[in-house]
Amino acid sequence: MKIGVVQQKYHGSKILMLEATVTAIKALKAEGAELVVLQELHQDRYFCVNENVENFMLAESYEEDVAFWAKVAKESSVVLVVSLFEKRAVGLYHNSAIVFEKDGSIAGKYRKMHIPDDPGFYEKFYFTPGDLGFEPIETSVGKLGVLICWDQWFPEAARLMTLKGADILIYPTAIGWFDEDCEAEKARQLDAWMTVQRGHAIANGVPVVAINRIGKELDDAKVIDGIRFWGNSFVVDAQGAYLYRGSKDKEEAVLVDIDTSKSEEIRRIWPFLRDRRIDAYEKITYRFID
Amino acid sequence: MKIGVVQQKYHGSKILMLEATVTAIKALKAEGAELVVLQELHQDRYFCVNENVENFMLAESYEEDVAFWAKVAKESSVVLVVSLFEKRAVGLYHNSAIVFEKDGSIAGKYRKMHIPDDPGFYEKFYFTPGDLGFEPIETSVGKLGVLICWDQWFPEAARLMTLKGADILIYPTAIGWFDEDCEAEKARQLDAWMTVQRGHAIANGVPVVAINRIGKELDDAKVIDGIRFWGNSFVVDAQGAYLYRGSKDKEEAVLVDIDTSKSEEIRRIWPFLRDRRIDAYEKITYRFID
Q1: Which side of chain A, N or C, has fewer Cβ within a 10 Å radius?
Q2: Backbone phi, then psi, for A57, in 5-degree steps?
Q3: Which residues of B touch A203 (CB under 8 A)?
């Protein structure tokens, strides 16, 4: 499976972002990409840095955005995973990933299930938690287990995608550091982020792709300084071994070739799916067991 | 929480193992250990390297073994986690961890829930899967989420222990390489083993302790060459950062001080337990979703 991974900074406007992204997709297609994956909310800056009702305007173009990316997928004849701010009804919004087939048709949609909320990442203000569940999206290149950012910390999401036959897990992401944190803490956060996702690859015997943005984005409300997105987009195989690891501060459009037969190989010798104690897991659906 | 971690080779006989282990426990107590954790099936060589009915004899002393370790815990006044071959009835055996209080009383027992079976690790022949579920054991030093070896690959086990209030996850282990594998594959296996467990620490905001044996143990049935146990016992904090990492080939008895308030700190800023989509996890109890 030849995947194009696009790690970007915010270019200052939506128009410039679309141009840069289309250019990257075309270049990856020319290199042989069958599938291209983009970072979370790649059309804009990461606007959830503060709570501002004006930002809901960014979702007004949702239908146009879908039509735009459908055309891009068709023109480049790639399977394309985009991440959009979805207006579903008046006052009802989602953080959604749309997957397009090579002919521009919609293969499927995923609405972010786990929504974060912590200083600088005020997503509960903007996004209603997804109601489409954890369903892999069938495409001509395989069943894509598309999840989004905060979902990456939840082993349940990765497991459910695997049990439903996902060939790969894909996490469009927007995560970064606060400059005021010390270097040791920054290193621990980045390491934890990579480790927990590599853990999903290992526990499930599936490759994992995470795509993150780069660049410092300021908080225009001036409550916090801003976020320095840490890049480090990566691809690991079904044993958790790196196939690609991006820089922390450079734009990248890189083709990564994933050998999906590794899942067959690794699950035969580490057959975790065989040994799961499904008779003893029912309390996973509890909030806490007091 | 001052934990003593004991990484050992097989000393050639049970008597010699008991002597070496008691010596290590006493030394750790002298350094200030409140809790001592031992590797999987630490009384003997790892006998599951082949299937031999003679090995069931090793479980005949189960009641005596429990009495012996109770006395050791009491004499050193430490909470002690041991790993024993439990004979429960004629023809019914478990791979069990017993936790003793400082006064030698039994604080609780865990029977290994996930049982492996692959070349050199024929545990399904010896051990009936546990029927005590995933229950942390309450002790004077905290609630111990004791799991055993193969359990470490299953995020469900770590999650359930966390939901039941475990302050720490503890994995007595016996895992190693085959000498005939290439160095790159050995490195990938070791890395996967550490990564998946560090992932549990991160996803759950709990410290994790894994204790593994060292040394090459031959297969007396000569079907395989044997197993070179890879050591690398480790302790990570609630953010997955290393507090201790043992060698691959040396015996170690090391005191590690875990700051359990880190769970409070990390779960406040990474509140995964807050955001779990318990309304959407029910199919975790399925074998596969066709």
Answers
A1: C
A2: -60, -30
A3: 153-155, 196, 199
Distance CA A177, CA B71 (A): 51
**Cβ–Cβ gap B285/A282 under 8 Å:** yes
What distance in Å separates the CA atoms of residue A48 and residue A55, rounded to the nearest whole number? 8
Residues 6+ apart with CB under 8 A from B283: A160, A163, B289
Containing A17, the helix (H) or strand (E) segment is helix A14-31
For chain A, which residues score pLDDT lower than 50? none
A252 with A233: CB under 8 angstroms?
yes
Residue B228, strand partner residues? B177, B216
C-alpha dihedral (A283, A286, A290, B3), degrees to nearest 10: 70
d(CA B20, CA A149): 48
Q: Is the pTM of this model over 0.90?
A: yes
Q: How far apart are CA B11 and CA A236, in angstroms?
A: 39
Output phi, psi for B125, to 5 deg. Answer: -70, -35
Taking contacts as CB-CB distances below 8 angstroms, the residues of chain B near A143 are none
d(CA A274, CA A267) in angstroms, rounded, equals: 9
Residue B35, judged by CB atoms within 10 A of its CB (0-12, 13-18, 19+), counts as buried
What confidence tens digit (pLDDT) does each residue in B26-76 have?
999 999 999 999 999 999 999 999 999 999 999 999 999 999 999 999 999
ipTM: 0.97
